[in-house]
Write a structure and sequence with these properties.
3 domains; five-stranded parallel β-sheet
């Protein structure tokens, strides 16, 4: 869609392993030299490892494009197979007819005959296993046993294992020490550095027929490297989307802002807002924890009220006062309920006694004093006090 706008013959940042677009960094050159030497010297086992998207498959495609017609190749892209399917796939990829074959022994016999014929014709036979880190232990052992097919002078089958760093961990296990001893060459493919990232972008633009290879400014290239960490596949994805976005905005040169917009779109809305979902609750929790610590802890607030008294003591005194008021209210209510439940003779109060006294006075009887019986007893005595004039 954007090819005409940027004067390109092809899309420069496809993620297919096209050898025409291969950029040989220092690490890629060294890896290619290892593979070429392994094939030319008929080494039995070669292992190439590297992070996802570093260009292992593209590197092998470049190697195969340089081989002559005297090399027979079987390329296994998905090694998650059973043992019988594994041998059947290899035989068929070498062009062998497997009609009527059903057992592992039959496939092995057919493969051995084919290898001997190729050796007689001085042809090289190579098995390439991609994504080798997914090989099951049983199938990895079968691959090792295939290298036993040999003559006193040469290996009949060469094996190249391509895998992610997990393959190194698998080969380091003690159960695969026999396989590890058979590895002739081993190399770890590294990502591109900052300078190589810029050269990689220019290399692919040139391969796509661009007359202007300065489509990405310096800041844009820095942003691409910062996000991709030099992984070629990620560089391709970012650059392809950046060219599309630039075409929509009618920008003939890609800037940092366009690259950042592309990266945000690649990450998705959930990832962009993810920090809020993680940190905001944490901030709220920390704030609440600080309030609780200040409330319950023995902290002083300078010249503010209660500066000489801790917040904890003030809070506790308020609680105790509230509990005391509540207790008094409950006692008063209980007393009122008790008086309401008593008999009429038990409900005589000092006012009632006064009324009775007044009635007696009007009848001629003059009491010297009116004291409730409960109050007339002195401490430590059962007698009543004498009347006074």
């Amino acid at each position: 869609m954007y090819n005409k706008f940027y004067a390109l013959k092809d899309k420069p940042f496809e993620i297919t392993p096209d050898p025409r677009y291969l950029y040989l960094s220092e690490s890629h050159r060294e890896a290619l030299a290892h593979l070429t030497y392994a094939l030319n010297e008929s080494k039995g086992f070669t292992v190439i490892t590297g992070e996802v998207g570093t260009g292992k498959t593209t590197l092998v495609q470049m190697l195969l494009s340089r081989l002559d017609s005297h090399t027979r190749i079987a390329h296994l892209f998905n090694p998650k197979l059973g043992t019988r399917d594994f041998f059947k796939y290899i035989c068929q990829d070498f062009g062998l007819k497997t009609d009527g074959f059903s057992t592992k022994g039959e496939f092995l016999s057919l493969l051995h005959t084919f290898l001997m014929e190729c050796y007689a014709r001085r042809e090289r036979v190579v098995l390439i296993v991609d994504e080798a880190q997914t090989l099951s232990p049983a199938l990895l052992e079968e691959v090792r046993l295939l290298t036993n097919l040999e003559t006193p002078k040469a290996k009949l089958l060469q094996v190249i294992l391509l895998g992610q760093p997990e393959l190194d961990n698998t080969l380091a296990r003690s159960e695969f020490r026999q396989l590890k001893q058979r590895i002739s060459l081993r190399f770890n493919l590294k990502p591109l550095n900052r300078q190589e990232t810029g050269e990689y972008i220019i290399r692919r633009l040139k391969a796509a027929g661009a007359r202007n290879t300065d489509l990405f400014d310096e800041d844009a290239v820095k942003e691409i490297y910062k996000y991709s960490k030099g992984i070629p596949r990620l560089i391709n994805v970012i650059c392809d989307n950046a060219l599309m976005t630039g075409f929509v905005y009618e920008k003939h040169r890609i800037s940092r802002d366009i690259v950042r917009e592309v990266i945000k779109d690649m990450e998705g809305p959930t990832v962009r807002r993810g920090w809020k979902a993680i940190f905001l609750p944490a901030i709220v929790i920390l704030a609440l924890a600080g309030i609780l610590i200040a409330w319950w802890g023995d902290l002083s607030f300078g010249n503010r009220p209660y500066a000489g008294e801790s917040v904890q003591k003030v809070f506790r005194s308020k609680i105790m006062k509230a509990l005391e008021i509540t207790s008094i209210e409950r006692t008063d209510k209980a007393s009122e309920a008790s008086q309401n439940n008593n008999s009429p003779t038990e409900q005589t109060t000092p006012s009632a006694v006064a009324e009775q006294t007044m009635e007696r006075t009007s009848g001629g009887t003059q009491p010297a004093g009116i004291i409730p019986a409960a109050a007339q007893k002195t401490a430590g005595s059962d007698s009543f006090p004498k009347k006074t004039d």
